[in-house]
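Quick one, probably user error.
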């Protein structure tokens, strides 16, 4: 379980740095789009990816949710 928590923190930091956001902005965004649950469920696939690839994957997920919401 600790590995997943560390990995979630890593994803938050990578997203923050790659998107030039504050920690608070990332947490709010991740909360709005339930990204933490996604990271937990996709851990096996995501943890072998680099930070930029993870950021791009999360951006694609968010864009898809936004598109469905209209």
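Nope, works fine. Designed sequence:
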């Amino acid at each position: 379980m600790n590995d997943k928590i560390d990995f979630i923190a890593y994803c938050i930091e990578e997203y923050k740095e790659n998107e030039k956001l504050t920690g608070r902005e990332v947490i709010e965004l991740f909360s709005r789009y339930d990204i933490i649950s996604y990271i937990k469920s996709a851990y096996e696939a995501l943890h072998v990816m680099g930070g930029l690839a993870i950021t791009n994957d999360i951006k694609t997920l968010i864009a898809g949710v936004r598109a469905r919401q209209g």
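The first helix runs from residue 2 to 19.
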